[in-house]
Amino acid sequence: MAKPVVVGRRARARQDVGARLRMARESLGLTQQQFAEAFELTKLSVLQYEAGRTPLPTDLLPCLEELGIDSAWVATGTPTLAHLPTRKRFTWALQWVKRESAIHGLTIALEQEVEIAWCIMVQHLQPAQANECLPDDEVSAIVRDLIANRLG
Fold first, then answer.
1. Residues 113, 97: contact at Cβ < 8 Å?
2. Which helix (H) or strand (E) holds 147?
3. In whole numbers, what is the pLDDT of the chain averaged over residues?
4. Integer Cα distance of 26 and 92 in angstroms
């Protein structure tokens, strides 16, 4: 008997997890075959996970962490500050918020600085992405827009 086709929210969630898994794998510079070997999987399994056809087994999440991938981000789309590279990206984003607010003579409450830095990190920096991927002028514009939207 064939498995029923999953549609709707569950199918979309699997596709999203698969897309994030692919981004993470590619950020490491690994082929599907190399990734499969690292996890003792078949290339077909990796292909199925990335395509969202098969749910990513939760027992692979700790293995992702061992490779330096934020498994919470892969699983949910939300990074976790428990992951060191995520904390470094958040710190970088917070420094940009403080820099831009100082340049423009703005006084921003710490809670607002943190919220704006989190938005930058979540919306503009993929967990697998190095900070240097965004040009300074682009980051400055993003920070200014977020500050303007938050402070009105």
1. yes
2. helix 136-151
3. 87
4. 23
| Residue whose token pair is 């929210």 | 9
Confidence of residue 130 (pLDDT cuts 50, 70, 90): very low
Distances (CA, A) of 62 to 7, 67, 75: 28, 9, 11
Task: Please name which of 135, 139, 146, 150 lies closest in space to residue 93, comparing C-alpha atoms.
Answer: 139
Cα→Cα distances 53→25, 49, 69, 130, Å: 17, 6, 21, 29
Q: Residues with Cβ < 8 Å from 33, sequence gap 6 or more? A: 43
- Confidence at 145, pLDDT banded by 50, 70, 90: confident
Look up tokens 């940009």; give the residue: 96
